[in-house]
Amino acid sequence: MKRPSLPILILIAGLLVSGVILVRVLPRGTARALTSAHAEPSVRAPAVTGAFYPSDPQQLLGEVRSYLDRADVQTAAGELVALIVPHAGYVYSAPVAAYAYRLLQGRSYDTVAVIGPSHRVPVDGVALSDADEWQSPLGRVPIDRDASTTIANSYPKARVIDAAHEREHSIEVQLPFLQTVLSDFALLPLLMTDFSDANCTSLARALADLAQKRRLLLIASSDMSHYPSYDDAVRVDRETLKAIETMDAGEVAATTRRLMAQGVPGLVTALCGEGPVETVLLAARLLGADRVEVLKYANSGDVPAGSKDGVVGYCAVAIYRTRPLADTELNAAQQRRLLDLARSTIEEYVRTGRRLDVAETDPALLRPAAAFVTLKGGGQLRGCIGSLEPSQPLAETVRDRAIMAATRDPRFPPVRAQELPDLDLEISVLSPMRRVTTPDEIDISKHGVVVRSNGRSGVFLPQVAEETGWSRDELLSHLCREKAGLSADAWKRGAALYVFTVQAFSSPAPGAHSHVGNSPGT
Ligand SMILES: [Zn+2]
Question: What is the pLDDT of residues 136-188, one digit of tens each?
Fold first, then answer.
């Protein structure tokens, strides 16, 4: 092989790095808790400016804009949930990254979570940044410290490890693009080296929860194959992209394992940000994403400065939700799966005290959703417990509320094993809540209603109006007094009102004739 040229040395300096050949530079134990607000904002200074991208602001902005101008990408319909972008020196990978960032023009987000591999410092779990701001030649970006705290609270292995962020380039190189295409956003930088399913899934769940509280864009930072020949890179990266297109993190993990086992000359990793990519796919599924689009593929051999030997691959990928969540009606087979899950869960729990694991892969059943599970025995209510916040994947919500309805409804003793054959089940899946400004917006024939005031809240499912025959005003008074413990006229005096719709479906006790369908929920 020829002596590498200067750009190749920069490439190697920047890219001689992957999840596979991580060096253990710093000792463990550098993690600490998020500190309280500083008097002076603490700022993370750029580490790779002048090497990966120009340090002169005008030159940098000019280059970013010209990469964006040359990225010929259609704006697809749908809500953009996540991107996958590369993180090499700009001369190599910025033309590809621009395809993804161009999609952000005209969109706005509260927070952009960028998940990158930590190339220098091993991270147990996930590394958060303790800085208040990150600096780039184009200015400072505020860190969403609130989001960091939320992530740390929901996933204890997500901790501040500033040493991991200090010299790392995989997130830093994204900043100039983000600063150019978005006008106002906060950054949530996350680094990982543990690409296990457990670590990725835990972080994905925490991110999906976070997305309920802010307009969140997810970005996975990853390069593709490292150092095979040009032709091998094209072939290997095509396989990896095919796996990414399935939106199945397990498929991506299996594919990269299979590719690495093939003994491709020079190949040291197929996807250096495999964990970030898998985390983003898992989170996107939880958020109802249903479409993956590969916007651009190229490798370092495609640019004039690059050699065709020992190349690194780059992709720009967009992940969308094409259907609004509220319109996501479950089909009969999906209803059947949830009803079966609820029934088998209750049977197992009542008989053995064991909580079944949920093995579900259907995105419609994995999106976060609130739901109620209602049990009846001999036509009489036997337990009803639900959730109002979409804090878990739907299948897990149904499993956990089924157990609670059977064993924790304070109005009833726990269900006994001999009652199981006689239990009717109904599941009500809630749409997202919408706040109404006047009671006139409430249609009690189809809306469930939530009232909130002074830290108290109450809920009626849409079925209640039909079962009781109450008028709207009667229903609101009963809701305030009996469900929320407020005065009966609180709804007239400023209490917040929210509406939602439900999709309800039921299965009668085993032995009786079974049916599945949309019932009005009587
Ligand atoms: Zn990398």
Answer: 999 999 999 999 999 999 899 999 999 999 999 999 999 999 999 998 999 99
How does strand 496-500 pair with strand 448-453?
antiparallel
| Residue range 7-49, pLDDT digits in tens | 333 333 333 333 223 333 333 333 444 555 546 889 999 999 9
Distance 256 CA to ligand 1 centre (A): 15
Class of CATH domain 6-323: alpha beta
Q: How far is the CA of 27 from the centre of ligand 1 (A)?
A: 21
Residues less than 5 Å from ion ligand 1, measured at CB:
223, 272
What predicted TM-score, i.e. pTM, was given to this entire model? 0.65
Q: What is the CATH number of domain 331-371+378-428?
A: 3.30.700.20
Residues linked to residue 383 through DSSP beta bridges, in sequence order:
375
Ligand 1 centroid distance, CA of 168 (Å)? 10
* Residue type present at position 467: E
- Cα(202) to centroid(ligand 1), Å: 22
Calculate how far, in angstroms, residue 87's C-alpha sits from the geometric centre of ligand 1.
Answer: 6
Residue ranges matching CATH 3.40.830.10 in the chain: 6-323
Ligand 1 center from residue 190 Cα (angstroms): 14
Distance 198 CA to ligand 1 centre (A): 21
Which residues of the chain form CATH 3.30.700.20?
A: 331-371+378-428
| DSSP string covering 205-231 | HHHHHHTTTS-EEEEEE----BSS-HH
Residue 241 vs residues 182, 209, 235, 247, 314: alpha-carbon distances, Å: 27, 27, 10, 10, 10
